[in-house]
Write a structure and sequence with these properties.
The complex is a heterodimer of chains A (305) and B (275). Chain A is mainly α and 305 residues long. Chain A is built from 15 helices and two strands. With 275 residues, chain B is mainly alpha-helical. Classes of the chains: A mainly alpha (305), B mainly alpha (275).
Chain lengths: 305, 275
């Protein structure tokens, strides 16, 4: 905060302005988010307790917790929960660990550093639909793809990546897309590690490894939680990459929760069941995000004061 | 000692470039494929050196509907950003300067709406949209993108406004400027760079969005993403064409991203990261 923004000045400004203006100005934002988020979310919760299938319009009414029960005992749902956790967990692991390592490389001064970094971050700015299709066809296609060509060259028979390892293939695409994001965040964090401390450690004869574990890592710990929290939010909602590559298959091998809800809603037309699964997804997302946010809560300050 | 250090720097530089090339390569390969013939796109071994042709681009534009997808993408991404700006500016002004009661709670609530996976509201919005005739309507999709970007916009503008010295606003107030004048003539010009980066982030997120557009549109309001995703059915019969349209769809955003890389990422962390 700049020093000239002190509390007294803020107060005097506040006194002169009309109190009601402050609420009036907030109203459009709050109303918009209320109409587009709070009301639909309430409707999802409402539907999750209803018998409601678009294909069976005559059967409706209160259904108790039957939808939830059906969802929980369904092996499809269980599979998609596990797939979601694997997809989120493994992608987090790789984007964090590789993210820190690559950020260390790009924080070193070398010739053409900015150019290399700029090329590196490109996948993050391409649309996920394009990224998914590009990997599915030109790279991972088992006959004409680059991977097949490479595999033949090293003397093994081409692997059908999306058919045999669908979830792994999607994780590769997601990590390729999102590593630039975590690298750019870690780069910013590394800049804030005080140079003097590193210098002091070097004079004391600290090796590269101890420098990393005792100085750099503790200084970017908070950033790791920021990345964990944000990426969890994004990774739980992954849809486009699955939609254009495996369509959740083969079978349900790469169906995550959003894709499961999409199938329940738009193929089985079972609004009740899809809504129950959606409520559970929202709860899971909030538990994980709040878990990480909890570690941050003391340190994450508001921009204001 | 010195030469050892130089060697180390050189090695790190080489690793840095190898990583960059590996990550950039798939996009570059798509770019190359877009200048091949459909037969050339399939050739084994892959063609790295070839005579570039524009047939794929010509074929894409010969369809006649590609312009529509471009226009829809532009309307939904720029339109939603403009609306989000108009709604967010007064809110952020209020949160930063007027300090309403429950300000911290309001800020937290606004940002917490981003914690909800979009799929949590998909079904009701689809049903309501069907009843209101907003399915496959570009303004229906635009309204969704406003919802998606409004919390980020409010948060980033709040962050920008909070760093503006109060004396400047005070002085304008004493000169008798109305609140409207204060915002348009004083506040917005001095927060120009913050507003630009928030808007760019909003445009990029809407442009690249791949969940709502495939679920809420199909023909009339289809965006580039929806059109490109239709290539998934052909089992890769038209790689050159797919690459051509994909290249056109991603190039504007990639170039924007290259220019404003750090601000974009800072924006996505909701300003939680200070430089």
């Amino acid at each position: 905060m700049p020093s000239n923004n002190n509390a007294a000045e803020r107060k005097s400004f506040q006194r002169k302005s009309v109190k009601s203006t402050s609420y009036l100005f907030l109203l459009p934002t709050i109303a918009y988010l209320f109409i587009w988020m709070v009301i639909p979310l309430s409707m999802t919760i409402y539907y999750s307790f209803q018998k409601y299938n678009i294909l069976l319009p005559y059967i409706h009414g209160f259904n108790g917790v039957t939808n939830y029960y059906q969802v929980f005992i369904s092996s499809d749902f269980q599979a998609s929960v596990i797939n979601t956790l694997i997809l989120v967990g493994v992608s987090l692991l790789f984007t964090i660990v590789l993210g820190i390592l690559i950020a260390l490389i790009y924080s070193t001064d070398f010739w053409g550093k900015n150019f290399a970094r700029t090329l590196f971050i490109t996948p993050f700015f391409a649309m996920p639909i394009v990224n998914g299709l590009l990997w599915k066809n030109m790279i991972l296609n088992p006959t004409y793809g680059l991977s097949a060509w490479f595999e033949r060259m090293i003397g093994i028979s081409p692997i059908s990546w999306l058919g045999s390892f669908p979830l792994l293939s999607i994780i590769i695409i997601v990590v390729w897309e999102w590593l630039p994001f975590s690298v750019l965040i870690f780069l910013t964090a590394l800049q804030s590690v005080p140079e003097t401390i590193i210098e002091a450690a070097r004079i004391d004869g600290a090796g590269k490894l101890s420098e990393f574990f005792y100085i750099i890592l503790p200084n970017i710990f908070q950033t790791i939680y920021v990345v964990l929290m944000l990426e969890t939010m994004f990774f739980i909602s992954i849809f486009a990459e699955i939609f254009v590559t495996t369509s959740g298959g083969p079978g349900l091998a790469s169906t995550n929760l959003p894709y499961y809800i999409y199938l329940q809603g738009f193929f089985a037309w079972n609004v009740g069941k899809a809504s129950a699964a959606a409520v559970i997804t929202v709860i899971i997302a909030n538990i994980i995000v709040l878990f990480f946010a909890n570690f941050l809560s003391k340190k994450l300050k508001f921009g204001g004061e | 000692m010195k030469s050892k250090k130089r060697l180390e720097k050189f090695t790190i530089g080489v690793i840095g470039f190898v990583i960059a090339i590996i990550f950039f390569f798939p996009i570059f390969w798509m770019f190359l494929t877009s200048f091949k013939t459909e037969v050339g796109a399939f050739s084994i071994p892959p063609e790295f050196l070839f005579k570039p042709v524009l047939t794929a681009y010509q074929a894409v534009f010969a369809r006649g509907d590609v312009q529509k997808y471009f226009i829809n993408t532009i309307i939904s991404s720029f339109g939603s950003t403009l609306i989000a700006l108009i709604v967010a500016i007064p809110a952020s002004y209020s949160l930063a300067f007027l300090k309403p009661k429950g300000r911290n709670f309001t800020l937290l609530w606004i940002i917490s709406t981003k914690m909800m996976p979009p799929v949590g509201v998909l079904i009701p919005i689809y049903i309501v949209y069907t009843n209101l005739g907003l399915i496959d309507n570009i303004w229906g999709l635009t309204a969704i993108y406003v919802m998606m970007n409004l919390p980020i916009m409010v948060w980033l503008l709040f962050d920008t406004f909070s760093n503006i010295p109060l004396e400047i606003l005070e002085a304008a107030k004493i000169d008798g400027a109305s609140t409207y004048k204060l915002i348009t003539n004083v506040l917005l010009p001095i927060s120009k760079s913050g507003i630009w980066s928030a808007s760019l982030l909003s445009v990029i997120l809407a442009w690249n969005e791949g969940f709502w557009c495939v679920n809420l549109t199909n023909v009339n309001a289809a965006t580039l993403g929806v059109f490109i995703s239709s290539f998934k059915a052909g089992e890769g019969l038209y790689w050159a064409k797919m690459s051509a349209i994909s290249t056109l769809a991603v190039i504007p955003v990639i170039i924007l991203g290259w220019i404003v890389q750090t601000q974009i990422v800072r924006g996505l962390t909701f300003g939680a990261l200070k430089e």
